[in-house]
Amino acid sequence: MARARVPGAQPVIADGPVLPPPPDRAALLAAYALPDRDTRRVRMNFVASLDGAATLEGRSGGLGDASDRLAMQVLRTLADVVLVGAGTVRVEGYGGLAVGEEDAAWRVARGLPGQPRLAVVSSSLDLDPDSAFFTAAVTRPIVVTHAAAPAARRAALEQVADVIVAGEQAVDLRAMLDLLADRGLRQVLCEGGPHLFGALLEADLVDELCLSLSPMLVGGDAGRIVRGAPELECRMHLVHAIPAGDLVLLRYRRG
Questions:
Q1: What is the SS3 assignment for the chain?
Q2: pTM assigned to the model
């Protein structure tokens, strides 16, 4: 039953507040626009529940919705390279990652390649060259590793990907970003996982966090969006908070 209106008060809807319509592609392209493309930049893109869970039933996808997926496509459209950890590739897939035709045309009109590159960070090189990550790739993938990684695995992956060696006994993330920038890949969008986020945070290499706040309470023992980093303080500045139905798209920049 509808509630009676109080003179002078805002209307109250029996089923809850009136939510603004979700933002469209053009609005999100403007909201996430880059101030320039020459400055090297690392953006993190994650989704989390209201109680801080980074996954639902072991995967992040269950926390998102159509607005979260649209924001992710916009962020990929703006990126030079999408960076992920090897564990995320094994769990989430990433076979055939590509932006749509409209987004590819938007990129080409601005002098960019039609598709962003896709890069995976792996110390052990425990990656299957026959997986969809490589066989369904729309651009030649990049594998980032270190000099002490298994030589046989490296040779096998060099058949299906560009292998970048950054560091001697472990992946040097700062050197990795320098080597990517040398290839013209300065706008880095990192989509996880939490351990890669933690390593980038510990190395003081995170410039932005684009977080979709999912309207869910998950409980359980799901991890946070950052794992493996020591306790530290990295102050962030809120750039926007965009309601998208019950989900909120948050963008934070280094203070």
A1: CCCCCCCCCCCCCCCCCCCCCCCCHHHHHHHCCCCCCCCCEEEEEEEECCCCCCCECCECHHHCCHHHHHHHHHHHHHCCEEEEEHHHHHHHCCCCCCCCHHHHHHHHHCCCCCCCEEEEECCCCCCCCCCHHHHCCCCCCEEEECCCCCHHHHHHHCCCCEEEECCCCCCCHHHHHHHHHHCCCCEEEECCCHHHHHHHHHCCCCCEEEEEECCCCCCCCCCCCCCCCCCCCCCEEEEEEEEECCEEEEEEEEC
A2: 0.90
Q: Name the residue ranges covered by the structural domains of the chain.
A: 40-254
Asked if the 40-254 domain carries CATH number 3.40.430.10, the reply is yes
**Tens-digit pLDDT string for the chain (255 aa):** 344 333 444 444 446 667 778 899 999 999 999 999 999 999 999 999 999 998 887 777 788 789 999 999 999 999 999 999 998 888 877 888 999 999 999 999 999 999 999 999 999 999 999 999 999 999 999 999 999 999 999 999 999 999 999 999 999 999 999 999 999 999 999 998 899 999 999 999 999 999 999 998 989 888 899 999 988 989 999 999 999 989 999 999 997
